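User: Hi! I'm a student and our assignment asks us to look at how structure tokens line up with a sequence. Could you show me two examples?

Assistant: Happy to help. In each example below, the sequence comes first and the structure tokens follow. Example one:
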Amino acid sequence: MRAVHLSSDRLQHAAPITHVAFRPDGRRLATSSYDGTVLVWDVEGRSRPTPVARLHHRRLVNASAWNPRDPEILATASADKTVAVWRIGADGAVGTISTLARHTDDINSVAWLPDGERLICVSEDGRATMWDGLTGRFLASVASHAAHCMMVSANSKGQVATVGEDGMVAVFSPDDDTRRATKLYESSVEGCEWSPDGDTLAVARDDGHVDLLTAALDVVVSAEVSSSAVRSVAWIDDETFVAGAYDGALHFIDRSGAVIGRHSDDRAWPRSVGAARGVVAVGSFWSTPHLLDARTREPAHPPSEPTHGPNAIAVHGQDVFVGCDSGLVVRLPVAVIRRGDDVDPGAVEVLSTGGSPVLSLAYRDTGLFAGTYSGEVLHFADGDSRRIGVGAPVPSLVAHGSGVLAGTYNGELVHVGGGPHLVELSRVEGHGGSVKSLATFADGDIVSGATDRTVAIGDHERRGPLWEHGNLVNSVATLDHWVASASRDHTVKAGRVTRDPRGQWVASDIRTFLGPDESVKAVALIGDPAAPVVLGGSYDFKVYAWHVAAHGAAEDRLSGRVVFDFDQAVSCMARVDERRALVAGWDGRLVLVEASPDGRVAVVGELSLPKLIVASTRGAAVRS
């Protein structure tokens, strides 16, 4: 397993912050990141947070937890399938205590039991396991979910709660197996935390609610917080808590379920929240944590510098548009990528959405459209921009009819018209999960892939399934009569899609390609439409190529050939023309991949997007 390598000259993150954790005394804060590191910050006295230590994993870090008895001990959980336990001295000196390395999948969350010795770890494989955190010894499997186990919290009484994508909440005591309760929701539950007194469990639901539960999992209060998923919750004191939702906001709520305040900032990523000593911390798309005053709900120390990880690519002729975590969209000619980092800044244009990360892009004759994390669709045209809210993050966009079709985190397909004023033309439920990717097909129909594991086809109102994956679908692509999809189940599928005698779309000649032993994030089709090349980009940092027709040995068709290796996961890709595709990695690099007529696939250009943005915006106005 290769390690993430994102360069940073200073003690700050080079990618978005996935998790925040205050030490129990509130004097230090640990922030975890996609860059494979954990930074420990001195936040005492509410002066500007000062970084004191950096800890490294091989892959992104999902969470951390401070030891309740020894303030120098921190456990960190990573997608490299390990939990590391560290000692961090008052002077920032770092030592390793143990590494818990028997896990079979990414670790999503960790929690110490009150004894300060035992540690509960929860994983993508659905299991909750208990370890001696100080010696690294495995103790027991203590719970199991039918899907990814997402969060664990332990209270001062030794009771443990776990929640998962299967909608199950489980409460148990490792010291008394008879004290076990479960509750099942219809929606995914991905966040939980016990109240300071240990009597009440707050759970964050994917349907926009937060429930307060007893230890027996009886509902005390159910608060409707957001029209989008609630993903995190943290208690400020025994009477108030804060919930982070995928509407981009922090919601402040009292024990009665009344929402008493709200804070929204495009730089914040409410995937994780924490609270201590009157301060609220929230994850960030930027390089430093976002801290608020819990009483006034005003920023105490906002993030200082953006990160420019690419999330989306759109192509118009020989121009490429790349959307970033910083809310910027970069337009550049394909020829610039061939020349590499020696770029004339005048050949590049930088547009701004106003700060919210750009998750999707689409181009049509009226101009560029962008979908954002804050749940807006923007239209850039005639030197100006217009926007409309659609109620949830927009991970996918495609030109359709008189405007664009937006696929939302809530599973809806929203048809937005691109006239003088953006107008919502229609809204339907497209999938039973987040619509991760959209691609145009024949006769004006659309192919979609979603977290409900399905690939579907049709217009924006009437759709039918093509095939299913074993896990969520990250990306879909089309070329002529071919459709390809990339999934978290570690595979890429490609099939020929045609109409049957009744006029219905049907898939045939479906092939399954195996490459990495990790989630495949992006897919593209290039080359001869009669026998295309399938490109897949993975969380193992590599770009793979498979030939639909037989080129080379059978094992090459099965496992693919590695075309390029980034220093972080592949984030997105898009076909530029019949034989070329642009691929972006979260290390900020863009590479141009070309399939030659004889079937060879090679990288023919490369450049650094962050360097390009810095060079292009130095002293220049950014258009919004």
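Example two works the same way, sequence first and then tokens:
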Amino acid sequence: MSKELILSYEEDRVRIVILENGRIQELHEENVDDHFSVGDIVYGKVKKLAPSLNACFVNIGYEKDAFLHYHDLGPQVKSSIKYCKGVSQGKINSPKLNSFSFEEDIDKDGVIQDILSPNQEILVQVSKEPISTKGPRISSEVSLAGRYLVLIPFSSKTSISRSISTQEEKNRLKSIGEQIRPNGFGLIIRTVAENKTVAELQSDLRYLLNKWNNICFKNIKKGKPPVKILSELDKASSILRDNFNEDFVNIVCDNQDLVDEIKDYLEIIAPEKVKLVQYYDSHIPIFEHYNIDKQIKQLFGKHVNIYQAKGAYLIIEHTEALHVIDVNSGNVTASLKSQEDSALHINKLAAAEIARQLRLRDIGGIIVVDFIDMTSSQHKKELYEYLKEVMSIDKAKHKILPPSKFGLVQITRQRVRPQKQVNTLENNPNPDGKIESPIVLVDKIQDQIQSLVHSKNKLFLHAHPFVCAYLTKGVKSIRNQWFLKYKKWIRVIPRDGFKYLEFQVQNDKKEILYQHSN
């Protein structure tokens, strides 16, 4: 199994894709001007209390106040408030917590007004991004995530990931964690720390302590709420931190600055893998080269073909309250021993595609799946176990219920950011139902080529694949006629992401000389 990380940098966003054997497994987008994302640490100010909800609203600099529930305060919130107040007032001048006098833990069943009051300053971390009309969800129990460890200020516990395979390894890591854990900090040892050496864990701990010392402490000291103390790693680096393993064979990006940042981060977490990072420099966009734009259009529609199912497909519908997925066999004929075996086979393929779709679209909330009907209870159990298996790699918290009487499977999946929406439909270029003749579009393209062809620049025409096919078909193609007429070769580049009437003319520096859209 080979994985590739592909990054496309545009003016206002970075699009990131994880490919597995050439197929999209994860799609992420990061807007360059995003104000808040999960993991950001902010020094905020309590705006108002909501005793009926046992919660409060905190000004963290976002247009809507963030929501902080009592259960998200964390037991050491009093110590955190005391420390931050001392640092901001100049009474505490050290980022170390070994000599700090801790407060008592709060009562887990207490009320918000006994702990916080309006205008109180508090250190918080974003746990859920703003969704629809709601502001961010936050927690006062902050943590700093590294490759192998998670550092938790104001705590004193060492916790081990439940996913670590053996009790012996858990005991070994627990012992190491207790030895290296600094006073005043807690540690969570992550799954990827399995079989790692003491030196590797210590190196990761030094990196996290340095982040706390040089970023968090200094920003608390000089910051006036609301102020962002620490931004979560950019999306590319956080994906590397959480997903990078031996399966990765390629990391490709079309922006040199981003390439350098990724190399710098890999020098910290996996220096031997820096050579995997490559800079992509071509007039064919990186997502076109790796066939990503085409896959995106195929994967985000209402109808999604099931991989290797030869005609079976999913119908995915979204409502206000839940998401519904219907599995259809299409025109698949039973090639196995019986119709029941064929249904189980298609349902398993559908289960794998559903697990992939939930990750791709970042679908959260309630999901109801209607698989192809099966009568065998053994087959139903086998499908249920297989669905749990393919969902196990999903990092979002989720729960799967066994099939109901009606054969429906219900899934709940954690939502921490808005669902990803990719519009695969195109508007009618002309609302009255009429569009210009294709020959008129070709004339427009030829006019632009004629006006630009005498420049010293090489010319690259980007257009919809149908238009490109028309311009390049045959020995007497329109492009060949341009070459004979102007003595200049125009490179024609099909763009799956373009609309029918959209085209661009670029020079050899990838600058857009002319752009036409619907």
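Here is something you could point out in your write-up. The first strand starts at residue 3 and ends at 9.
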